[in-house]
Amino acid sequence: MRARDLAEPFPVVTLGTDAIDAARLLAGQRLPGLIVCADNGRPTTVLPGSQVLRFLIPQYVQDDLALARVYDEQGSDDLLGKLFDSKVSDVLPRKQDLDEIPIVDQDATTMEVAAVMARMHSPIVAVTDGETLLGAITVSRLLEQLLPSAPAQP
Amino acid sequence: MRARDLAEPFPVVTLGTDAIDAARLLAGQRLPGLIVCADNGRPTTVLPGSQVLRFLIPQYVQDDLALARVYDEQGSDDLLGKLFDSKVSDVLPRKQDLDEIPIVDQDATTMEVAAVMARMHSPIVAVTDGETLLGAITVSRLLEQLLPSAPAQP
Q: Does A111 contact B57 at a Cβ distance shorter than 8 Å?
């Protein structure tokens, strides 16, 4: 089985999408992450949900977890509940190594898909045919596909 | 709002659970990850779904992603579909830094919960009262709670 056989439709956002709309898409549909596409439809970034949270967390708190602990309850809620007038392009991680974005070719094997997810700590991979997004594979989808055929334990 | 207010019931596995049952629990309930508890009920590890995939991937493939690409289609499916007679304790990561396990105290603020998820690339955090597991918070749950109250964009 190849990646193309496992890929399912997945909503995408673009670099110009409002960051708050991207976060709401993730929350509302309980997506495991976001796929960000360029204007030509080519996926450029795949962000696990945990990394989408960075949209909402000040940089200095991301740099030093201890600073998160000094916020009082109300201050914490206020800060997190407030999303500025940002686009997705404004809140993406600055530096991205292309080798570390969970995108696989449609010909990738299940082993490669699993290894990419594990290596990149990503609950989803985007599946492409050249520059075109075919869909996405989630960890649940991959496991569901693999496990039913597992031999019974002796 | 504190972690205790956001925590929801979450299924757990123990170190003695069959690894395949743990993987099936994740897939069947589409959980974002697994919470592993010691015999006394204390959570000891929280594994994102992407890391549960390591149960199924040979170590040498995890060490070198390029090796995943040389598997042919059938070989890849066979290998991944086969889970040995392992317990969860057999397949957990060897070294674990306690500071890098996404477990928070019930008094943690939403900011701390978000920062822990982002820092540790985890779609869930376990919430504890001392050594007792109260439940878990997912990225979706946290965002759902935070975003509806976000002020309208100007």
A: yes
- pTM over 0.90? The answer is no
Q: B116: which residues sit within 8 A by CB, 6+ positions away?
A: A65, A68, B102, B104, B108, B122, B125
- DSSP E strands in chain A: the ranges are 12-14, 33-37, 43-48, 103-105, 124-129, 132-138
CA distance A125 to chain B (A): 11
**What confidence category does residue A73 fall into, taking pLDDT thresholds of 50, 70 and 90?**
low
ipTM of the complex: 0.84
- Give chain B positions within 8 Å (CB) of A32: 32, 49, 123
* pLDDT 10s digits, A112-126: 999 999 988 899 999
A3/A142 Cα distance (integer angstroms): 10
The C-alpha of A91 sits at a distance from chain B's nearest C-alpha, in angstroms, of 14
Residue B65: which of A26, A115, A144 has the nearest Cβ? Answer: A115
| Cβ-proximal residues to B7 (8 Å cutoff; 6+ apart), any chain | B106, B127, B134, B135, B136, B137
